[in-house]
User: Fold this.
Amino acid sequence: MAEQVRAIRTRQAILTAAARVFEEHGYQAATISQILTEAGVTKGALYFHFQSKDDLAQGVLAGQDQRILVPDRATKVQEIVDMVMLHAHRLQTDPMVRAGVRLTMDQLAQGLDRSGPFVRWAEVVTVTLQKAQEQGELLPHVVPEETADVIVGTFAGVQSMSQAICDYRDLAARTSALVRHLLPSITVSSVLASLDLAESRGALVYAEALKAADALELATASG
Assistant:
């Protein structure tokens, strides 16, 4: 058990180090040597967990999908808002998420498959939009798959603009503006009036989601 815990901690330390290096240098310029130095581990330890720089990058990309999840909402459009606002908050506060987004948007990352986060995001948003449609929350013209791509694509643009202008400091405000402009084109007015689109929403959802994740982890460990 102790060896397993050490292995998990070592793997996480390597991923965290890789995230820092990728965020600072980008995929193409980053080297295994830099990651080893940042992590403070041996080459053998690194290659025990990750086969290559590409494998490390995929681990960082997957770090965007960690255990912090939006709790189910009765109103599914609010759930979508919460997903977007939560991701914006994590971009401002979580180095792993920032590094994952840097890799996702890195057009110089030759040979690296950067599609995973976009595909996973679109799939999750599509399913939630389908539930919203079933509950009568969406306008008749909405096609969930198409709208999901628009939501994911526009948020990618907004976060990229925020990063370039002020290193994400205004991302919560920009994301709130995004959903305020986008949602009236897809949501029925009665649902729209009930939504919380405030800039502070991401931080509130993060605290709620973290508490729920900790409770689930505790229940799993004791059960």
Q: What stands out?
A: The two ends are 17 Å apart (CA to CA). The chain has eleven helices and no strands. The mean pLDDT is 89. The first helix runs from residue 2 to 29.
